Amino acid sequence: MDIQKLFSVKDKVVLVTGGSRGIGEMISTGFVQAGARVYISSRSAKNCDETAARLTALGPGVCISLPADLQSLDDIKKLVTELSKREKHLDVLINNSGATWGAPIDKYPDEAFQKVVNLNLNRVFSLTQACLPLLRANASTDHPSRVINIGSINGINPPSFESYAYSSSKAAVHHLTRHLAARLGPEGILVNAIAPGVFATKMMAGTLKTSGDKILAGIPTSRVGSPEDIAGTCLYLSSRAGQYTTGAVFPVDGGSLVSKI
Ligand SMILES: NC(=O)c1ccc[n+]([C@@H]2O[C@H](COP(=O)([O-])OP(=O)(O)OC[C@H]3O[C@@H](n4cnc5c(N)ncnc54)[C@H](OP(=O)(O)O)[C@@H]3O)[C@@H](O)[C@H]2O)c1
After folding, report:
1. Is 99 in the pocket of ligand 1 (CB under 6 A)?
2. The domain made up of 3-254 is a member of CATH 3.40.50.300
3. Which of 38, 51, 97 for a ligand 1 pocket mutation test, highest count of atoms within 8 Å of Cβ?
4. In degrees rounded to 5, what are phi and psi of residue 72?
5. Is residue 250 classed as helix, strand or coil in its secondary structure?
6. How confident is the model over 35-85, as pLDDT tens digits?
7. Domain spans of the chain, in order of start
């Protein structure tokens, strides 16, 4: 066993959607610090450019900004075209971009439901589909490419908050992960999902402000997630160490799912 290389992702080509901030930035930082070439994508070109510059300065890997609105199929095609101009293959696709919406059940807006499901589920499929030629280019059973979908513990246990589109889109993304894993495994593409618990990002800022104490009381390890927690799981899944795992959904939640509270 080459223990030095067991968790290595050095020189891997990685695309992280929503890499400009939050959990996507945490994951991208881990890959850059492990020597990978990381492309990040989100709607804001300014945010992508600034994060890419910041992460590249960290090194030893590099981070490149490729902005796109993933709600749009046209933008997805343009993103993959731009990536294909720069790379002959893709080792790791991380479908992390996501959105949520909360509203009382009687007033939950149809438009919000559609937007959340489109970004969190439909476009995970669309981008994975569009990336297949790049994912297949260097893939084999001995050297598999990886897709990691960022789901949520809300897709396993429904939350107390009224975020109906969010929880159901995340449950669907977990199931899509299993379906894709069965289809793509024989082609040397491993597909897994991570179900994060609570991480202190822009998405969670409002909820943590209003219900932070209640949320922390429901986490057996008594803290929110850190960059190391989420990046470490992605590095494991993308390296030789994670090569016999596909179709799995990994809670990274400090034990929230087993909490008695
Ligand atoms: N934070 C948590 O506690 C938590 C828990 C469980 C699961 N998650 C999941 O983790 C993922 C990241 O969430 P986060 O907490 O880091 O949220 P965040 O801070 O709000 O970041 C969301 C990212 O997605 C991008 N994004 C939003 N709409 C987009 C679009 N139409 N096209 C492309 N990119 C878009 C955002 O950039 P732009 O605004 O520039 O587009 C941003 O980079 C999501 O899938 C979320 O559901 C988070």
Report:
1. yes
2. no
3. 97
4. -100, 130
5. strand
6. 999 999 999 999 999 999 999 999 999 999 999 999 999 999 999 999 999
7. 3-254
Angle between helix 227-238 and 22-33 (nearest 10): 60
CA distance 122 to 119: 6
**H-run or E-run covering 194:** strand 189-196
Q: Which amino acid is at 58?
A: L
Q: How far is the CA of 1 from the centre of ligand 1 (A)?
A: 37
The single-letter code of the amino acid at 222 is S
CB of 118 sitting under 6 A from ligand 1: no
Confirm whether 244 is a catalytic residue: no
Ligand 1 pocket member 176 (CB < 6 A)? no
Q: How deeply is 257 buried, as exposed, middle or buried, from its count of CB atoms within 10 A (0-12, 13-18, 19+)? A: middle
Unique residue bearing structure tokens 């409002």: 206
Residue 75 structure tokens: 């933008």
